Amino acid sequence: MTCSLKDLRAFAVRNRLDVTFHAHATGAAWMVNRRGLVARPTLGEAAASSVEDTLEAADEFLLEGDKQPRRRLSREQFLELMATRAAAGGAGRERDDE
């Protein structure tokens, strides 16, 4: 499974989370906040790369929410979490349609 910027923004808004993603190989990092806005976090001298390139190469995701403890996830863990929450959300919408 891959993660597009659109998917990540929807995930952040739906779950009310700030999601910071890092590509350690390049030192690049970006953040999508709980409103879906994309910003470069202040992490010192982060390398300049596009948000899409950084997301594609990201190997670490940091999740922060008001009611949840801060979580640091690998790419695989984050994609699994996104898939799980998307499936749960889809099942809820199907029940609403009935």
Number of domains: 1
Mean pLDDT: 85
Order of helices and strands: HEEEHEEH
Unreliable sequence segments: 93-98
Which structural category fits the helices and strands?
alpha+beta
Cα Rg: 14 Å
Helix content: 40-55%
- Strand portion, in percent? 15-25%
Biggest sheet descriptor: 5 strands, antiparallel
Distance between the termini: 29 Å
Number of strands: 5
Numbering strands along the chain, what is their spatial order in the largest sheet? 3-2-1-4-5
Q: Could you say which overall geometry the principal axes of the C-alpha atoms support?
A: globular
Number of helices: 3
SSE layout:
Blueprint: H1 5-15, E1 18-23, E2 28-32, E3 38-39, H2 51-57, E4 60-64, E5 71-74, H3 75-97
Antiparallel strand pairs: 1-2, 1-4, 2-3, 4-5
Quick description:
The protein is of the alpha+beta class and 98 residues long.
Question: Would you mind describing this structure in some detail?
Answer:
With 98 residues, the chain is of the alpha+beta class. It has one domain. Helix content is 42%, strand content 22%. Strands 3-2-1-4-5 form a five-stranded antiparallel β-sheet. A hairpin with a 6-residue loop joins strand 4 and strand 5. The radius of gyration is 14 Å and the shape is globular.
